[in-house]
Amino acid sequence: MSKIVQIGIGGVGTVVAHKLAQNIDVFESVTLASRTKSKCDALAETLNKKYGVKFDTDCVDADEVDQIVALLKKHKPVLVINVALPYQDLAIMEACLQCGVNYLDTANYEPKDEAHFEYSWQWAYKKRFEDAGLTAILGCGFDPGVSGVYTAYAAKHHFKEMNYLDIVDCNAGNHHKAFATNFNPEINIREITQNGRYYQDGKWVETGALEIHKPLTYPNVGPKESYLMYHEELESLVKNFPTIKRARFWMTFGQEYLTHLRVIQNIGMARIDEVEYNGVKIVPLQFLKAVLPNPKDLGENYEGETSIGCRIRGIGKDGKELTYYVYNNCSHHDAFLETGMQGVSYTTGVPAMIGAMMFVKGLWQRPGVWNVEEFDPDPFMAELNKHGLPWHEEFNKDLEL
Ligand code: NDP
């Protein structure tokens, strides 16, 4: 019995649902749930026409533990795939514990009133999941997600000791909009406007937001200005691979995007506190989300590709210095043709389905709360090649970092 409940059917959730439908022999049955049942019904109908599957649908406000508990009692899944927003992580984990259900997500918990993310809130559930004999798999998208699996794969197969890790995330696509974000705009803008942070010699070094940048060359793309940001998987990777002396995360942004972002901040539209407007309380960033393009609708004219990978330096298994680059390139247009979504949703949704597959097949099952790099990377890496995210390796090349 491997019944799945998937909460959230936005850009990422739509891809997850397509991939679950394509692999229904592994998953048996799926319930799609979000705040808006009509959206789940529409997606279920698309999947029925395309793949002949019959997915149940339901309505849940996943900010409310009681509502999630009722959902899980009704559908009795073995696993919840949480692809709603990071705000809902703790409520869904709590409900999973109450109902004896396993858990998987793609982004770590963030409180709504503070643009701050760290794993401590979710790691605090470790003992309770352990005692309940339940598995929670955290951060199983691309980054976090595949970035951690790549790192675990490098440690297992290529390195005696990893010393320097740089995760490099390039979106060389063009959606032909003046400004749009590739995943939920509220979560995305909160993340990018935060101070940068990287790990060096056992300490975290803080930088201004997007203060450090340099051009990096991406396969099949060429050089792109890349900006140092804090990203959540750095926190777990330096803990799980203690030989790492320096860990950083880089992401590319175009000048047009950065100019819009600066204006949004300067005029107060990135604020996450409440302001009163005509007697109504609104949060400017939430209002901005309502008027920006929905990342779900960007796919049709999206050209170009993403290129995301890990560049690692250290001592190889043979005792000699080794540099290693493992990456995937994903075409926005191919992702759209398959799922109707653009490449950023695709690169997140495919690994979430593979993580669920790892769980259901018994390959990634261990009571407790775990980050993806704590499981065996090999079966996951093999599935990436089969489900649309093939990876490539380069050895002893200039990593530029
Ligand atoms: P969207 O905004 O497109 O979709 C969010 C979905 O969550 C919608 O279906 C929405 O339902 C649902 N939802 C929101 N609030 C609630 C709630 N209270 N109760 C139930 N459902 C709710 O977001 P994305 O698909 O772009 O992103 C989804 C997740 O993926 C985010 O957590 C994001 O951080 C993560 N992500 C991870 C990446 C990675 O590589 N690890 C990369 C990109 C994204 P409704 O429309 O009915 O309100």
Textual characterization of the structure:
- The protein is α/β, with parallel strands linked by helices and 401 residues long.
- It folds into two domains: 135 residues, Rossmann fold (3-Layer(aba) Sandwich), CATH 3.40.50.720; 208 residues, 2-Layer Sandwich (Dihydrodipicolinate Reductase, domain 2).
- Helices cover 37% and strands 26% of the residues.
- Strands 7, 8, 9, 10, 11, 12, 15, 16 and 18 form a nine-stranded mixed beta sheet that branches. A seven-stranded parallel beta sheet has the order 3-2-1-4-5-6-17, with helices on both faces. A two-stranded antiparallel ribbon has the order 13-14.
- A hairpin with a 3-residue loop joins β10 and β11.
- The radius of gyration is 20 Å and the shape is globular.
- The protein binds NADPH dihydro-nicotinamide-adenine-dinucleotide phosphate (NDP).
- The site of NADPH dihydro-nicotinamide-adenine-dinucleotide phosphate has 33 residues, from α1.
**Count of the separate structural domains:** 2
Query: How is the main sheet built?
Result: 9 strands, mixed
CATH superfamily of the largest domain: Dihydrodipicolinate Reductase, domain 2
Percent helix, as a range, is 25-40%
Bound molecules: NADPH dihydro-nicotinamide-adenine-dinucleotide phosphate
Number of strands: 18
Overall morphology: globular
| Estimated share of beta-strand residues | 25-35%
Could you tell me the CATH topology label of the largest domain. Dihydrodipicolinate Reductase, domain 2
Mean pLDDT: 97
